[in-house]
Write a structure and sequence with these properties.
466 residues; mainly beta; 13-stranded parallel β-sheet; twelve-stranded parallel β-sheet
C-alpha cells in the first residue's frame, strides 16, 4: 500500500511536531500498489463520509510531518489505493507536473489534524497535474481531496473521467461537534477536545464558536479544467465544499461535458458551509445543474451555459440550517440554448430557515433563453416582484462562437454594461510546463459518446432524490 513514507517526529497530543525538510522526488513511476482494507473499528476515523481514513498508510507516496518538499514529473498509475497523501503536519509541499491515472481510491489527499487548535497542514501547492480515472475501486475516491487543511493552492490541473468528485474541500461538520457523544461517524475520534475545551468561546452560535477549529480555510482552487467526472456516483459535485471553514475561493475554473444525469450540480456548497466564493467560473454543457448554494456563500461573475434546464442555480438547505441572508449573486451570465428553462430552483429544503433567492443580493445578472426569450424575461419579472434582480436583463450575451466553446464576449455584449468582467480562458488547464511525454499518455475520450440532453429526454432516468 505504502511504498515510501517521509515522516518527521509527530507530537500527536502536543503542540510541536518536528518535520523532515527538503526531500524531493522527480521522474519516478509508482505503480501496482495494493488497496487499503478497513477493520471493524474504523468508524469515527473516516474523513467526511468515510471517503478515506485519517492518518493512514493508504498511499503510494506519503508525507507525514514534512516541510519544503516536492513531487514533480512523477507518474502514479494502476494501483488499488491512493496515489499521494500529505498527513498531519505538512507545509509548503509542492505537487506539480505529475500524471496520476487509474487509481483505486484518491489521487491526492491533504489530511490535517482533526478539529482543534493545531493547524499545521497548510500552504501546499497542487499545480499542473493531469489526473484521470480515480475511484476505480472505491468509487468515492476524489481526484483531489482537502480535509482540515488550509491556505493551499490547487491550480491548472486537468481532471477527467473520475468516479466521483474532482475536488473536495471538507472538514468536520458542525453537527458532529455539537454532539460530543456522536463517536461513530465523520472523524469524531479525531476531534481534539482537550484543545477545544480550553479555547472555545463560552457563548454564541455554535457555527461561530466552532469555526476557529476548522482548518480547511482560505484555499484557492483556480484555473482547473474538469470534465466527465461523477461517472459512477451521482450525489456530489465536480467541485464541492462542505463542513470546511470560511474564505475558500473557487475561481476561474472550466467545468464542462459532465454526462451523468443527476439532480445535483457541477459546483456546490453543501452542508454546514459558509463564506465560500465562486467567481469567474465557466460551466458548460452538463446534464446536471450549474451551482447549488446553501447558507451564506457568494456566486459572482460566472458563466452558466447549457446545463440541466431545470435549475441552473439551486437553492437548498441542510437540516437545522439557520438562514444566512445577503449572499451575493451578481454579474453572472445564465444562457440556455433550448426552448425553456428554470434558472432558480429551490430544491432539497431540509430546513424551514432556508435562504431563498429573495433573501440574496441578486442583481446585475444576464439571463437569456435563446429558444424562447419569454422564459428569461418572465424569470426577471418574477424575481423583481420579490425585490431582487432590479437591474438584471434578458438579452443575448453575444458570445464569439458558442458552437466551438469560444465564450469570449463581443465588444458590444450587454453583459459588459452590467459590470461583467471577461474571463481569460487562456489561463485555464495544463500549462506548457507539463511534461510532453505525459501529455501523450492522456486518454481524453473513452468513445462512449454520451448524450447531453440536459434533462430534456423524458425516457432518461435521473437521480432525483433532491
Amino acid at each position: 500500500k505504502e511504498f515510501i513514507r517521509i515522516s518527521g517526529h509527530i507530537d500527536y497530543d502536543g503542540p510541536a511536531d518536528t518535520p523532515v525538510r527538503h526531500i524531493h522526488f522527480q521522474g519516478l513511476t509508482f505503480t501496482h500498489g495494493e488497496r487499503d482494507t478497513w477493520d471493524e473499528n474504523h468508524k469515527g476515523w473516516g474523513i467526511q463520509h468515510d471517503w478515506e481514513l485519517f492518518d493512514r498508510d493508504s498511499a503510494l507516496l506519503r508525507f507525514r510531518g514534512a516541510e519544503d518538499c516536492s513531487v514533480e514529473a512523477c507518474r502514479f498509475s494502476n494501483s488499488g489505493g491512493t496515489a499521494l497523501r500529505l498527513d498531519l503536519h505538512c507545509q509548503r509541499i509542492r505537487i506539480a507536473n505529475n500524471l496520476i491515472d487509474y487509481m483505486g481510491s484518491m489521487g491526492i489527499l491533504l489530511c490535517g489534524y482533526g478539529p482543534g487548535t493545531k493547524d499545521v497542514n497548510k500552504n501546499n501547492e497542487i499545480v499542473n497535474n493531469l489526473i484521470h480515472h480515480t475511484g476505480e475501486v472505491i468509487w468515492h475516491g476524489h481526484a483531489i481531496f482537502v480535509w482540515q487543511s488550509g491556505s493551499n493552492r490547487m491550480a491548472n490541473n486537468c481532471i477527467h473521467h473520475c468516479a466521483r468528485k474532482a475536488i473536495g474541500l471538507c472538514g468536520v461538520r458542525i453537527t458532529i461537534l455539537e454532539n460530543r457523544d456522536h463517536t461513530f461517524d465523520e472523524a469524531a475520534h479525531t476531534i481534539r477536545w482537550h484543545e477545544i475545551d480550553k479555547a472555545i468561546a463560552p457563548e454564541g452560535a455554535n457555527f461561530d464558536r466552532f469555526m476557529p477549529f476548522l482548518h480547511a480555510r482560505d484555499n484557492i482552487v483556480e484555473d482547473n479544467e474538469i470534465y466527465r467526472v461523477l461517472e459512477k456516483i451521482g450525489d456530489g459535485s465536480a467541485l464541492n465544499v462542505s463542513g470546511a471553514a470560511e474564505g475558500n475561493l473557487i475561481r476561474r475554473n472550466y467545468a464542462h461535458h459532465i454526462a451523468v444525469h443527476t439532480a445535483s450540480s457541477v459546483m456546490r456548497v453543501d452542508d454546514w458551509q459558509r463564506g465560500t466564493t465562486f467567481v469567474d467560473n465557466i460551466i458548460y454543457m452538463c446534464n446536471l445543474g450549474g451551482i447549488t448554494r446553501k447558507n451564506f456563500n457568494h456566486i459572482e461573475n460566472n458563466m452558466l451555459i447549457d446545463v440541466r434546464m431545470e435549475g441552473y442555480l439551486r437553492f437548498a438547505s441542510y437540516p437545522d440550517e439557520k438562514a444566512g441572508y445577503g449572499s451575493r449573486i451578481q454579474r453572472n451570465i445564465f444562457y440556455e440554448s433550448g426552448p425553456d428553462v428554470t434558472y432558480y430552483k429551490p430544491a432539497y429544503l431540509a430546513s424551514p430557515d432556508v435562504s431563498l433567492p429573495k433573501h440574496c443580493e441578486a442583481d446585475h445578472n444576464l439571463f437569456y433563453c435563446a429558444g424562447d426569450p419569454t422564459y428569461s424575461e418572465t424569470h426577471i419579472k418574477d424575481m423583481q416582484k420579490d425585490g431582487i434582480e432590479q437591474h438584471s436583463i434578458s438579452a443575448d450575451p453575444l458570445f464569439e462562437d458558442l458552437e466551438n466553446a469560444d465564450f469570449r464576449l463581443k465588444p458590444d455584449s450587454p453583459a459588459l454594461n452590467l459590470g461583467f468582467q471577461p474571463i481569460d480562458m487562456s489561463c485555464i488547464g495544463l500549462t506548457r510546463d507539463f511534461p510532453e511525454h505525459f501529455r501523450k499518455l492522456d486518454e481524453p475520450e473513452d468513445n462512449s459518446n454520451p448524450e447531453y440532453d440536459r434533462g430534456r429526454n423524458p425516457n432518461k432516468e435521473a437521480y432525483a432524490w433532491w
